[in-house]
Automatic annotation (TrEMBL):
<keyword id="KW-0571">Peptide transport</keyword>
<dbReference type="GO" id="GO:1904680">
    <property type="term" value="F:peptide transmembrane transporter activity"/>
</dbReference>
<dbReference type="InterPro" id="IPR000914">
    <property type="entry name" value="SBP_5_dom"/>
</dbReference>
<feature type="signal peptide">
    <location>
        <begin position="1"/>
        <end position="22"/>
    </location>
</feature>
<keyword id="KW-0653">Protein transport</keyword>
<feature type="domain" description="Solute-binding protein family 5">
    <location>
        <begin position="72"/>
        <end position="445"/>
    </location>
</feature>
<dbReference type="GO" id="GO:0030288">
    <property type="term" value="C:outer membrane-bounded periplasmic space"/>
</dbReference>
<dbReference type="GO" id="GO:0015031">
    <property type="term" value="P:protein transport"/>
</dbReference>
<dbReference type="GO" id="GO:0015833">
    <property type="term" value="P:peptide transport"/>
</dbReference>
<dbReference type="Pfam" id="PF00496">
    <property type="entry name" value="SBP_bac_5"/>
</dbReference>
<dbReference type="GO" id="GO:0043190">
    <property type="term" value="C:ATP-binding cassette (ABC) transporter complex"/>
</dbReference>
<keyword id="KW-0732">Signal</keyword>
<protein>
    <submittedName>
        <fullName>Peptide ABC transporter substrate-binding protein</fullName>
    </submittedName>
</protein>
<keyword id="KW-0813">Transport</keyword>
<dbReference type="InterPro" id="IPR039424">
    <property type="entry name" value="SBP_5"/>
</dbReference>
<comment type="similarity">
    <text>Belongs to the bacterial solute-binding protein 5 family.</text>
</comment>
<dbReference type="InterPro" id="IPR030678">
    <property type="entry name" value="Peptide/Ni-bd"/>
</dbReference>
Length: 536
């Protein structure tokens, strides 16, 4: 289930996660993590990249979070919540005695301020839209007011949040970094520099940031979760070239190579026993896909799109990236609720693909364009697709462009017949199938500048999605996941995509690092859950 009974069980599951305690943790120790690039910001309302996501999660907390290493939603700063009979109002009871890093106790007024700050267009938060279900969001977004009408402080430890309609994804939104609780006085003190001087309630606090060199996180001795974090300090060294960082890790000078394993070293790490124990692999909420613009002829012909689905050799593409993925047959990744493990999808069948083209009136093939990001290995993947398409008579000219240009072309209805999403492929913001629909396959994303590059709009499936998201009761969650699964497989009957692969995440750690492997490829605290790993 996506949303389970949290009132009675959440505290135990949050404070003593079974996977984190697979071996007895040892408190203490200092570790070094390397990155090639400096961190842009540690402001939870602003940060939105894979590098700073887990850092921010270790500095801040929200009302909700996830059981470490899993997609299981649990309470965090909220001690409990109640949902109104109409499914529109969540009343959260906060934990008492939780302190910000500046020593002040966190109160319900901080929750209201933090949500309003992120929603306010002056903050320029890339996550503001996630708060659109909250009553009054439109007025804040338009600049008519600074206050969310739906957020009410009842007392110091109780806050009510009213939505415009029941929404089963709302608790997940409260687990996003964008919903982290911050103290108004610190934001006002530092202004635009709050991202360089973050103050939260998290397991760690920032104690030094020397631009271009390092960031140092120190253990929060007053953290409200007993016993964590285990590590005393984390030094994030920046400006470290990935190959050099990996060599340092092999010598024991580095504990986690944040940029992962460079392609030139991947097979060595994968195949040699002395490195095998250092590499951790895990699934992520990711799908790489080829979009087929359903509004551009001849891709507006269903049989043509089905033929393209049957023409692509996905196993060969996975080999191009050294086996770092598994072939996909549907938009949802296997780790996502709603994934239909019984769905077989389109087989790799070039002869049947040719027959479909003939039925569609394109027995002699046709010419088209394939847009791709110009960073390796994406052009090589596009070339493999190009060859597969040529085998059935389709001549696809590759347009290899900078990422921004590919995104712009995909967001213009008549520019990009096909787009390979590699380097830009969708990774879920939260573990709910709704996040894989609206922005990239739903009608709301099929707009200029949107991310639905297939320009696919099925209003019937959109309505099914709305129905699924209105299922907020605990006993409806299994039915809701099944409904979402049907939405995605029904969409595949229209073939707006060729799902190519579900890329796996690889993290490399030193021999002295411990903690369940899932913490090093955490599907939500991307990439590493620093709060629960420890030093042997």
């Amino acid at each position: 289930m996506l949303i389970r009974s949290l009132l009675a069980t959440a505290i135990a599951s949050l404070l003593t996660p079974a996977n984190a305690l697979a071996a007895e943790p040892k408190p203490g120790g200092d570790i070094i993590v390397t990155y090639q690039n400096d961190v842009a910001t540690l402001d939870p309302a602003i940060g939105y990249d894979w590098q700073n996501w887990s850092m921010i999660k270790s500095l801040f907390d929200g009302l909700m979070d996830y059981n470490p290493g899993t997609t299981e939603l649990v309470l965090d700063l909220a001690q409990s919540y109640e949902l109104s009979d109409d499914g529109k109002t969540y009343t959260f009871k906060l934990r008492e005695g939780v302190e910000f890093h500046n020593g002040r106790e966190m109160k319900a007024s901080d929750v209201k301020y933090s949500l309003e700050r992120t929603a306010n267009p002056e903050t320029q938060s890339p996550g503001a839209g996630f708060f659109s279900p909250i009553l009054g969001y439109d007025a804040v977004s338009a600049g008519d007011t600074d206050e969310l009408a739906g957020v009410t402080v009842i007392d110091d430890y109780t806050v009510a949040i009213e939505l415009t309609a029941p929404n089963a994804t709302f608790l997940h939104v409260m687990g996003l970094n964008f919903a982290s609780i911050v103290p108004r006085e610190a934001v006002e003190e530092y202004g635009k520099d709050f991202g360089k001087n973050p103050v939260g309630t998290g397991a760690y606090e920032l104690t030094d940031w020397t631009l271009g060199r390092h960031l140092i996180f120190s253990k929060n001795p007053d953290y409200f979760k007993p016993g964590v974090p285990y590590i005393d300090s984390i030094t994030f060294e920046v400006g470290q070239e990935p190959m050099v960082a990996l060599q340092r890790l092999e010598r024991g000078d580095v504990d986690i190579a944040g940029d992962g394993i460079p392609p030139a070293k991947f097979l060595q790490f994968k195949n040699e026993p002395q490195f095998e124990s250092l590499m951790v692999v895990g699934d992520q909420l990711h799908t790489g896909y080829l979009t087929l613009n359903v509004t551009i002829p001849p891709l507006d012909n269903l049989k043509v799109r089905q033929a393209i689905n049957m023409a692509i050799n996905k196993d060969r593409i996975v080999r191009i990236i050294n086996g770092r993925a598994t072939p996909a047959n549907q938009p949802l990744p296997p780790a996502m609720p709603g994934y239909d493990k019984n769905y077989e999808g389109y087989p790799f069948d070039p002869e049947q693909a040719k027959a479909l083209l003939t039925e569609a009136g394109y027995g002699d093939g046709f010419e088209t364009e394939l847009f791709v990001m110009n960073t390796d290995p994406q052009p090589r993947i596009a070339q493999a697709m190009q060859q597969d398409l040529l085998n059935i008579g389709i001549k696809a000219e590759i347009r290899s462009l900078a990422q921004a240009n590919v995104i712009a072309a995909g967001g213009a209805q008549d520019q990009a017949p096909m787009v390979w999403s590699g380097g830009m492929a969708w990774i879920a913001d939260f573990p709910d199938p709704a996040n894989f629909w609206g922005p990239i396959l739903g009608c709301e994303g099929a707009v200029p500048g949107g991310w639905n590059w297939a320009w696919y709009c099925n209003e019937e499936l959109d309505a099914m999605g709305d129905k699924a998201d209105a299922m907020v009761a605990e006993d409806q969650q299994e039915e809701r996941a099944a409904l979402w699964g049907k939405i995605f497989t029904d969409a595949m009957a229209d073939a707006p995509w060729v799902p190519i692969f579900n890329e796996q995440r690889f993290t490399v750690r030193s021999e002295r690092m411990a903690g369940d492997e899932s913490l090093y490829v955490d599907p939500v605290h991307v990439p590493v859950n620093y709060d629960y790993i420890w030093v042997k």
